[in-house]
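Good morning C.,

I know you're traveling, so I'll keep this short. The sequence:
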Amino acid sequence: MTRFTTAAPLILLLLVGFCDVALGQSTTAANAAKSDAADRTRRINQMQWVGTHNSYHIAPDPVAMAVIDLVARDEARSIDCTQRPLTEQLEKLGMRHFELDLFRDPDGTLYRSPLCYQMAKNQQADVPLFDPDQKLHQRGIKILHSPDFDYRTHVYTLRDALLEFDSWMKKHPDDGPIFVLLELKSQSFSPATVPLPWTAAAMDNLESSILEIFSRDRILAPDDVRASKPTLREAVKGIGWPAIGESKGKIIFLLDNEGAERQTYLAKSEILERRLLFASVDKSHPAAAWMKRNDPVGSYDEIVSLVSEGFLVRTRADSGTTESRLNDPRRRELAIKSGAQLISTDYPEPDGRFSEYFVSPKNLPQ
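The tokens, ready to paste straight into the viewer:
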């Protein structure tokens, strides 16, 4: 009896601990079940995600920045920001949409020797090494902001960026969807480099490059959203985007361009039949499903209206480094309040040179 009395407190403590663990596991399981149930009914257009603008970007080195500052001071100011590598943005910052600027380079010769980098080498300036693995010597689509001047990037080729997304998504099959905005660029401010235009054949090649990494069943494409409806617009307004639960493990590609590139992409099918990218079009267009409205201040009422109609909207919480330099959250707050589903930022974490301004999933309504 004495032994039992002595051991009783320990036994009681163990029982209480066991109950706490069991209760914790039960609560976790219940929360997971509740989340899964919500994901089965909650649609993509009813969610908000934070992502990065120029997601690949590394600020120009001092030599390149000095050249840019001489001819375009405002531009130099606006590009003075650096993102983390794509995987770190996914893993550590919770980013779920990305923007990549794409240049054609079928022979691997156009972007391997940037003008400002050659100037730096000629001056024996102390600048970071550029393209040590000679990725820009490879054939295929390249990622950079502006030839010869603003060319530093964490990932040099579209293929490597897609492989990075692919690797992370395979490790997190219950996450997603991931959104990738693709801007097809053919403009250069340098006389030393003349980019190639994005022809219809080049856009077909872009889609083939995507399918080399992502099988069609891993891509949420316009056909999937349109389903049995005649047009994307009718599907989005009548049914809505697919549920989150149906979209986990999927990647969604959005064409960032308007104008000539958009028209070329739509030429095969105005409802984007058998295409991989969604196009930003007017809400009356048969392909209307998502829209780019980058100014949440001037376009606030329009964004609210588009969201209420079921469309997906991308907007920017900041622009040109201004909000970070001024520590001004007003644009960020309007972007979130507007209901825009894709909120883009240059600052997923603070830039200590300027202020504590940043935009992260923590800023979104819970």
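Safe travels,
E.
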